[in-house]
Amino acid sequence: MTNSKLFSDSKKVIPSGVNSPVRYFEPYPFFTKKSNGAYLWDVENKKYIDFCNGYGALLLGHRRKEIINAVSNQLSKGTLYCTPTEAETELSKLIIGNFPSIDKVRLVNTGGEATMTAIRLARGFTKKKKIIKFEGCYHGAHDSVLVKAGSGSAHNGISVSEGGLDEVSKNTLVVQYNNIEDFQKTINQNKDIAGVIVEPILANMGLILPEKNFLYDLRKITKENNIPLIFDEVVTGFRVSPGGAQEHFGIKSDITTMAKALSNGFTIAAVGGRKEIIDLLSPGGKVYQASTFAGNPISVSAAISSIKTINKLKNKLYSKLERFNLLFTTALDDMATDMHIAHQINFTASMFQIFFTNKPVINYETSKKADSKKFQKMFRTLLKKGIFIAPSQFEVVFLSDAHTENDLNKTLDAYDAALKSVKN
């Protein structure tokens, strides 16, 4: 069986042939048959070094032994109970132990479900309607946050999807990331702000880092105005540090969402925060949220094992990934510079991205000005060389604990060829 034939078959029964739009790339995506450690193998038996890593979920690599063993043990006991389990309490305690801003936590299934719940909680807590989000931040595919980002000052959001309700989106104000003056002005002009949601580090517009004091000023202004601050740590939770970006920057949010690296590849997410906010969730409170699969024992067992493994290895894990990332991005920067290719490389912790532009990438506007056609040319060359990164300029390259120095050296060789293809 070939990738081409499987894609042709999939298009007959799956819209556009994929179950998530980010998985598509021209002329067709490869179809994976297995994975292990830092590697994927497609149906044609081609091996790839994986730097997409489940879009950041696989911090510990594919088929991590500790996690697979925990899940296998749970499989022998059952897959879904729809009753409380002791393991759910254990997992909640582990999350709270890693995130000092969280007093209580509710388990859900996906990052989008977590951010949807977080926004509903903020509105329920404040009895207000409007939400502020930032250009380039992605918080899932629900109407409150799936809005078009404008340029310059804040504006009422407009749905980017047909079928999305502008009546919902109009209550979302979009502000430029890293522009605290824009944010303060929006706060001053609107007295009906229920909450502010932000990716503390943007990982869905390429990689964009907060400028000095931006997050601190966000926290200060929201506190002064009694507005709940929501940190969307779906990507950064456990990946940037055991306590996410808020541990890294030393900032406590009022509500936190997390998913991805929480369970190293199993389907689970969480929303947590201050007790007086999280206790508003039903049945004890009047903010409704429910799910059949929330807290299912398979995903919970994976998350428990993932957090315990991270906590056990954290002194070596994060320093190793940061060292690898620095070595890699320094070498990549040198190669692009020697080839006289205009570029910017943003990196932190175990994440990086290269942009083909001569201007610093600090927000949505500057990210969109990067040459995405050059990125696509680089991507296709990398793929031919057996290196799989996310197929979009507006995603991130992720390192995992499974990557070795040999993997990085092979990947740098591939990037050398890919940059030469861009230059030509």
TrEMBL record:
Its EC number is 5.4.3.8. Keywords: Cytoplasm, Isomerase, Porphyrin biosynthesis, Pyridoxal phosphate. Pathway: Porphyrin-containing compound metabolism; protoporphyrin-IX biosynthesis; 5-aminolevulinate from L-glutamyl-tRNA(Glu): step 2/2. Signal peptide: none annotated. The modification N6-(pyridoxal phosphate)lysine is found at K260. One of its GO terms (cellular component) is cytoplasm. GO terms for biological process: protoporphyrinogen IX biosynthetic process. PROSITE patterns: AA_TRANSFER_CLASS_3 (PS00600). GO terms for molecular function: glutamate-1-semialdehyde 2,1-aminomutase activity; pyridoxal phosphate binding; transaminase activity. Its main location: cytoplasm. It is found in: Cytoplasm. Its cofactor is pyridoxal 5'-phosphate. Belongs to the class-III pyridoxal-phosphate-dependent aminotransferase family. HemL subfamily. This is Glutamate-1-semialdehyde 2,1-aminomutase. The gene is hemL.
